[in-house]
ADCL4 protein (Corythaeola cristata), 404 residues
Amino acid sequence: ALLPALLLLLLPLAALALAAVLLGLPSYDIPPGVNQPAKLRLVLAVLLSTAALGKILEKTGLCSQITFGRYVRQGRKLGVDPKLFIQDLQFNEVPVRVYQPKATSDGGRRGIIFFHGGGWVFGSLDTYEKVCRYLSRESESVVVSVQYRLAPEHKYPAAYEDCLNATIHFMKNTEHYGVDPACIIVCGDSAGGNLAAAVSQTLAERSDLPKLRAQILIYPGLQALDFNLPSYHQNRGVPLLFRERAAFFALQYLNGHALHMQEVLEGSHIPTDIKLNYRKWVSPDNIPEKFKVRGVKPLRPTDFIAEVYETVKRFCEPNLCPLLAEDAVVQQLPESFILTCEYDVLRDDGLLYKKRLEDNGVRVTWYHLEDGFHGIISLYDYCGFSFPAGKRGLDSVVNFLKSL
């Protein structure tokens, strides 16, 4: 009885995966060292099938691929949590979901502002419900999950502004939630890690608000100048984030479309003088040699295209690419936690920021998942699948929170 049911599931997935190839969706590669490769292949088949079906729906005019992707990723409603009070509110007109432990506390709790991932295009409060509940329960902290506006409908800086405004509101009203104003942490994964880093940099220069206690950046995307760092080539076809999709998401957030994606991938979108100026921060030279053993593709020189730069020059703004912030700002940042995954195109963004923080005297706790891939935190318990590396990563965040 199990085999026919499995075939009924896999045949449509296989057909749609084939359609994905025919429709020009990215090819993929699962390295042998990745966590739970067999399970990842099945998750990937579902994702490729979803992408293929979305593209078919878009071509037929029924709905856009992004709209369908959001529908599939929206998550499901969970039941009451016996250990948490959960309520949906608005902070400065930004929708948030607040998770508060029911157990009594001797003093003010930690307050965690959480920004979800999804390439600034996908993701919602429901998508990250399990993750936020886990963080709140296990660390006994108040968690505020922020539903920022999504691209391409809302371009940069909409998501950043929503996250900043929600955070400021929370910092000014901690007493309503039993939170110690001296122990507020910003946290996010992937695009949410980008937003957490940007918010942290902005607040570092504010003297009218309490100082953040820490920032937690989970495989963050922190720059869009160079999509040819070692991790981008080593992991270009590793799910759940392909190299092309990383550029696609950055362009959707910036411009509301992904025109000039090829030029951005090739590096012809940034003038030589600007590249040289930021080379002290964005360079393979700053990445430890042990992360290059899987091979580094030599850069092929590309010609700068001025008209492309005109459309993407805001990539040089730290609120969009926090790795480019000046030292004077980085020096003021709070204690930091950075999680990276070996099989992730964004690995080197995290490594470069770790170096920048440490070079500027900021205390950094770094956790590297040797068998991890992008998005694994969300898959620690996903539709009956469990990825041990995802839980290890999530527990490393909890342990850091408990140390504050």
User: Anything to note?
Assistant: Confidence is low (pLDDT under 50) at residues 1-8, 20-25. The radius of gyration is 21 Å.
